[in-house]
Specification:
This protein has about 350 residues and is an all-alpha fold. The protein contains 14 helices and no strands. Helix 5 runs antiparallel to helix 10 and helix 8 runs antiparallel to helix 10. The structure holds manganese (III) ion (2 copies).
Length: about 350
């Protein structure tokens, strides 16, 4: 081949079959800032020395251990769902190639979340206790109801007779289901480790939960932002109809959460405070989606011990020196709402 022929061969063009992702052509700066936030806060459960909680664990009354373990079993089911279905279905509606990359990270971290509870179980519980816990969560009516409602939106497919906007709404409902799950429904379970953290007990298990909450704050903000881009493209009448559906769904989920909280927390006397915390987070989920709050509850209504647990400062330095490998990830900082504003202007 002459040099000219070889150049001609290199320049030969065909129709594009598959397009390469170009991070130098960013369509939405939020994708880039989210990717940076997601990757800088990467963590693994195996780096947290949960066995340091064993002294606290052995001193807990049986009813508290039982509540703790069941709360974590419930969280395991929800994070399993997010790792298998939630992140996957939302990814399919990505508006940009960089958004797909962000969801690849999110989906992997959901698997880390789901696995991290098992790290806690294997440290605190016997194999027989673990079997009983998984059997409980896989057959409990309120957990299964919660999963069924959310999954019905994840699995929904547009049909041929739908208008383009109706098809778009099928995708938007997946985002709403995901944000309601992650910013609200997890919190009936998160309450327990945060309560212990606020009381300076079970700190390493709580550290895992704080890392998960930090991830979920980014997921909720990002998915909520992508939701709003699509929602703003709907006609005003469609937006109204969509809003009604959204509030009905949240209320339906909240009713199930009430029953679940009674079942889990009546024995220990925490139900009312758990539900205040759930309502406070339900409002946060709506805020992520650019909507007005549903409940009157604010941060000042939540048990200060829980808010104290949420806002407890960094403990990563200690943890990582305890595992003695000098492997320092991003520090867990004091949790402020502003920390999760990944460059998105909230109204
Ligand atoms: Mn998760
Ligand atoms: Mn998530």
């Amino acid at each position: 081949m002459t040099e000219q022929n070889s150049q001609n061969a290199l320049d030969k063009r065909v129709e594009t079959y598959y397009e390469a992702i170009n991070w130098n052509a960013i369509e939405d700066a939020i994708d880039k800032s989210t990717w940076e936030k997601l990757t800088e806060q990467f963590w693994l459960d195996t780096r947290i020395p949960v066995s340091n909680d064993l002294d606290d664990w052995r001193k807990l009354p049986q009813i508290e251990r039982d509540t703790f373990a069941k709360a974590f079993a419930g969280l395991t089911l929800l994070d399993t769902m997010q790792s298998v279905d939630g992140a996957e279905v939302v990814k399919h509606d990505a508006r940009t190639p960089q958004e797909t990359a962000c969801f690849n990270n999110i989906q992997f971290m959901e698997s880390v979340h789901a696995k991290s509870y098992s790290t806690i179980f294997s440290t605190l519980n016997t194999p027989k206790e673990i079997d009983v816990l998984f059997d409980w969560v896989n057959t409990n009516v309120h957990m299964q109801t919660k999963a069924k409602i959310i999954d019905s939106y994840y699995e929904a497919e547009p049909t041929d007779d739908m208008t383009p906007n109706e098809k778009k709404m099928v995708g938007l409902r997946k985002k709403v289901a995901s944000v309601f799950l992650e910013t609200c429904l997890f919190y009936s379970g998160f309450y327990t480790p945060l309560w212990y953290l606020g009381n300076n007990k079970m700190n390493n298990s709580a550290e895992i939960i704080k890392l998960i909450i930090r991830d979920e704050s980014v997921h909720g903000t990002y998915i909520g932002y992508k939701f709003q881009l699509g929602f703003n493209e709907l006609e005003p009448a469609e937006q109204e109809e969509f809003k009604n559906w959204m509030y009905d769904l949240l209320y339906q989920l909240y009713e199930n959460e009430e029953e679940y909280s009674h079942l889990l927390y009546d024995g220990i006397g925490w139900t009312d405070e758990v539900l205040t915390f759930v309502r406070y987070n339900a409002n946060k989920a709506l805020m992520n989606l650019g909507q007005d709050p549903l409940f009157p509850d604010t941060a000042s209504d939540v048990n200060p011990i829980i808010m104290n647990g949420i806002s407890a400062g960094t403990s990563n330095h200690d943890f990582f020196s305890q595992v003695g490998n000098g492997y320092l990830l991003g520090e867990v900082e004091v949790m402020n709402d502003e920390d999760y504003l990944i460059g998105i202007d909230r109204k």
